[in-house]
Design goal:
The chain is of the alpha/beta class. The protein is built from 21 helices and 35 strands. The chain is about 35% helix and about 20% strand. The strands form eight sheets. An eight-stranded mixed sheet has the order 12-11-20-19-18-17-16-13. Strands 23, 24, 27, 30, 31, 32 and 35 form a seven-stranded antiparallel sheet that branches. Strands 3-2-4-6-5-10 form a six-stranded mixed sheet.
Length: about 800
């Protein structure tokens, strides 16, 4: 007996017995419970698209047949039950329940935001057997807030599409938890700074970040810049505990954060340091013992005041290890473990992260994974790594984690498969990556599904291999620009080059030739546009690096090794090219990242955040060139350490690049945007000797010009400057306006003919003792001579 005859026979048997069955797809009324109209309406509209029939929506009454949405009570997040000719869809989140039913029973797929990413199949009427289904996800936090990281730069249609997709993918949080940086709110300096300076971190000058550096260690109770609390102070702990308990009385369901402020500035008093791990332990772990001891004590204190208090803290930055002091965290503690799974590029690194997850689970706290999947560090590039995501989520699930969240990329035309796999695994970690990817391709691409599966799978393998090789390679520029972020951008630009674009487009066009339906071809075109956007960003990052090599101080950008000619017209051409490329990238991005919005509505500018003002800096440099205010020294603020400087002196000369003291008073975006942490050149000059600091890149002028120089110096040694050996006269010392010993030196403009000119600074110590001198903000400008 074939399938159709079997179903007909079964229905006939039910009818002969006086029974009825629920036939999915046959027109019926949808009844909705209180506050469930919108969920019922969505179900009605989607069923109409699938079956071509009307499904009217009405408030619930005493009818016993039809579809009932949110009428029954449920203790699980999604539930459905069939009894005769009645179908109930219910759950603690009715919108999730409806989306789950449409996906599970009707074959609907929500692949990425927008109409193009939504697959609604044609359906046939079929009988649903009596029975019940329910599901409660293990993770109470599933990517909550994470996709919204850069949405303030998204247009409204994309925001709406994204919000709907998040709902359909059942992304949200049932556990209301906060792990944000909280010290400034818990113990504000404006309230306690004057009366209790001991509440705030004691910081040495070498570690002082932002503001005016002190001459000796002092409490960070009143200055600008990065600061923390003295976490060993019992009064600080009690103040925080009392606040947590008071808030918990009103909102016991919320996990409240006690995470330190972002960045550095941790206390260096003896009591705080007593718990620290030795410096030779793994980077980013030294403060682990002190911070978890602080958390345990605060949580115990708060629990005594009000037993329902729940406490959360990042496992992050300098305290991201597993405690070794035997501290046990009470069960009201939640740890948000911050990590980057794609940075796990060797089996040894994978074991290290796995051991950390397991070890933190043994502290007694509830673990919440906090991942950086793509937005912040990777600039919406195609860092496919769903196999690593699967491993990580399954491990978190195995050891009882309470959730997973973070910062994935919302560039769906570039990262749709990773985002889809990520969302599905967060809902149900028992699923498999391969199965989810095959489901994605089958739903999206029809007869081109196998080719597209191989494309995504092979691209991921190629990327992970190249990424691992690049991550474990030494980069000479890291000596001068030691930033993981900057280095990663250079690595990604090298991986996603023209050869990658050519290979990816060839595979996608092959798949498009196999697709039968126009919508399947459109979806492949969507990924083709993503490849082009990613390649445009990769080339733009290369241009930013060249701009940095051309004199721009760009935070989080590593200069290219290119020897850029320091000549006005050449620099104008370079900066203009980068500015145009940035505009081109924005235009490409406007309609191709999230859903189906048209270009011109709005831009997503992930580099418009304060840490990445690259386009603004480049545009300002063009204005500076036009007004002859541009600084032609590539590294005049020493943010790239010794790169492009030749330093020569006595054999006993000592020099270093330090944060002990710095000027950075002008528009040094590196210092302003990145923790306000500026660098300066520190010279320890032996008695009766001199040191010369020579730019390795000459200034070039193609017309008669004036060369102007200036710098800031700290210390008593004599400072002079010259171009090609022609000594400059000091015409201005900013006497009386110095700050902490800094003096501004300006030199008489030097008239020169067309040619190349090398700037050199000489610092002489005429005394009988070693002198310490700091130099910063060195500057050279070129101004054309008036026409005769």
């Amino acid at each position: 007996m074939n399938k159709t005859k079997s179903m007909t026979f079964a229905l006939a048997m039910l009818a002969s017995a006086g029974l009825s069955a629920f036939e999915l797809g046959k027109p019926c009324t949808i009844y909705f419970g209180r506050k469930c109209w919108s969920a019922a309406q969505e179900l009605s509209e989607t069923l109409e698209q699938i079956y071509g029939e009307k499904f009217p929506v009405k408030p619930a009454d005493k009818m016993n047949s039809g579809i009932f949405v949110g009428v029954k009570k449920a203790d699980k997040m999604v539930c459905s039950s069939v009894k005769g000719d009645r179908l109930d869809i219910c759950g603690t989140n009715i919108k999730y329940a409806v989306a789950d039913f449409l996906e599970r029973e009707c074959g609907v797929r929500y692949l990425w935001p927008g109409k193009l990413g939504t697959v609604i199949p044609d359906g046939d009427v079929r009988s649903l057997p009596d029975g019940e289904y329910s599901f409660q996800p293990q993770f109470s936090i599933r990517l909550s807030q994470s996709f919204h990281y850069p949405t303030r730069y998204m247009n409204l249609p994309d925001r709406k599409d994204l919000s709907v997709w998040l709902q359909h993918r059942k992304i949200g949080q049932e556990l209301r938890a906060s792990f944000g940086h909280a010290f400034a709110r818990l113990v504000p300096r404006e309230k306690y700074g004057k009366s209790h300076p001991e509440y705030f971190s004691l910081i040495t000058p070498a570690n002082w970040t932002g503001g005016v550096k002190p001459e000796k260690p002092r409490r960070a109770n009143s200055d600008t810049g990065v600061w923390q609390l003295c976490t060993s102070n019992p009064e600080v702990r009690q103040i925080i505990a009392e606040q947590l308990a008071a808030n918990a009385r009103k909102h016991p369901e919320i996990v409240q954060s006690i995470s330190p402020n972002d960045g550095a500035g941790f206390c260096e008093c003896e009591k705080c340091k007593a718990e620290d791990l030795p410096l030779q332990t793994a980077p980013g772990t030294q403060l682990t013992n002190r911070m978890y001891k602080f958390m345990a004590d605060v949580a115990h204190r708060a629990q005594k005041i009000y037993p329902g208090t729940r406490v959360g803290m990042f496992s992050y930055s300098y305290f991201s290890g597993v405690p070794t002091n035997g501290v046990k965290l009470p069960d009201n503690c939640y740890l948000s473990l911050c990590y980057i799974q794609v940075e796990v590029t060797t089996p040894e690194k994978q074991k290290e992260l796995d051991d950390k997850i397991i070890g933190l689970g043994k502290t007694g706290a509830k673990i919440v994974g906090r991942e950086y999947w793509g937005t912040h560090y990777y600039q919406n590039m195609p860092i496919q790594h769903s196999t690593l995501i699967e491993h990580n989520i399954k491990l978190l699930s195995k050891y009882g984690a309470a959730g997973i969240y973070g910062e994935p990329s919302n560039a769906f035309s570039i990262r749709a498969t990773d985002n889809y796999i990520l969302a599905k695994l967060a809902w149900n970690p028992r699923l498999s990556r391969n199965g989810i990817l095959r489901e994605f391709c089958k739903a999206a691409f029809g007869q081109a599904a196998d080719v597209m599966y191989r494309y995504f799978d092979e691209e991921e393998k190629i990327f992970l291999k190249k990424w691992s090789e690049a991550s474990n390679r030494e980069y000479p520029m890291m000596v001068y620009a030691p930033s993981m972020y900057a280095n990663r951008l250079r690595m990604l630009s090298a991986i996603f080059d023209e050869k990658w674009q050519s290979r990816a487009l060839a595979q996608l066009r092959k798949a498009k030739s196999l697709a039968k339906k126009s919508v399947e071809k459109e979806r492949i075109d969507y990924f083709i546009s993503g490849v082009n956007v990613a390649y445009a960003k990769s080339r733009l990052n290369e241009l930013w690096s060249e701009c940095a090599a051309g004199g721009l101080i760009l935070p989080l950008i590593q200069p290219a090794e290119t020897k850029v000619r320091m000549e006005k017209n050449n620099l104008r051409k370079l900066f203009s090219g980068a500015s145009r490329a940035a505009l081109n990238y924005e235009t490409l991005m406007a309609g191709n990242i999230v859903g189906n919005a048209q270009p011109g509505i709005g831009f997503l500018r992930e580099y418009a955040l304060s840490l990445r003002p690259w386009k603004a800096v480049t545009e300002k440099a063009l204005l500076d060139l036009s007004s002859n205010r541009f600084n032609y020294l590539v590294n005049g603020c020493f943010e790239y350490r010794q790169w492009e400087w030749d330093i020569q002196g006595d054999k006993d000369l000592k020099y270093s690049f330090t944060t002990e003291r710095n000027w950075d008073n002008k528009e040094n975006f590196m210092a302003q945007c990145h923790l306000n942490q500026g660098m300066s050149l520190k010279l320890e000059i032996p008695a009766k000797t001199s040191v010369t600091i020579t730019s390795r890149r000459p200034v070039e002028t193609e017309i008669p010009a004036f060369l102007r120089g200036a710098l800031f110096a700290w210390g008593d040694a004599a400072v002079t400057a010259d171009f090609n050996g022609r000594k400059l006269k000091t015409f201005h010392v900013n006497a009386g306006l110095e700050e902490n010993g800094w003096k501004e030196l300006r030199f008489t403009p030097l008239p020169v003919e067309p040619g190349k000119y090398t700037f050199r600074v000489t610092v002489t110590n005429p005394s009988d003792q070693t002198q310490v001198v700091y130099l910063d903000d060195m500057e050279v400008q070129v101004k054309p001579q008036p026409m005769k």
